[in-house]
Prior knowledge:
- The chain has helices at about 55-65, 75-85, 95, 140-155, and strands at about 20-25, 30-35, 35-40, 45-50, 65-70, 100, 110, 120-130, 135-140.
- The model is unreliable at about 140-155 (pLDDT under 50).
- Strand 1 (about 20-25) and strand 2 form a beta hairpin.
- The radius of gyration is 17 Å and the shape is globular.
- By secondary structure, it is of the alpha+beta class.
- It has a 7-stranded antiparallel beta sheet with strand order 2-1-5-8-9-4-3. A two-stranded antiparallel ribbon has the order 6-7.
- The N and C termini lie far apart (about 60 Å).
Amino acid sequence: MAKQVWKPGNMLYPVPAVMVTTGDGNGIDDIITIAWTGTINSDPPMVSISVRKSRYSHELLTKNGEFVINLVTKDLCYAMDYCGVKSGRDVDKFAEMKMTKGKAQTVSVPVIEESPVNIESVSYTHLRAHETDSYLVCRLLLEKKNNQKKKKKSS
């Protein structure tokens, strides 16, 4: 097979779709489906997510700066699809999809209890790729918390 040269584009597929929980820290919570997420760094542990500025969740992320990446199982696929096409401005996605809000360990926004893995994060910096998208580079808080425990034990 001959080597191919493609013009620039989004060709790194598949990318895991996840459900990201956001909130204002005072009880207003939302879920957004994110397909553009990934690892940025391992030390310190960091991830990125991409959220359009027009999305309700972007508003909550900007206000609070905290969110949780909730990994999705086969059983959560319908809810993930629903959360990707409905706006939190109009519906309570937790209630509509009968998902359970769980208390996060290090952030004020909830985890999705039905998700097998919840990655708690805080916004570290915003990168603007173009006028409509906002990329958040985020530090993983659970790892940070574990490092603090290790330091206390060794003192």
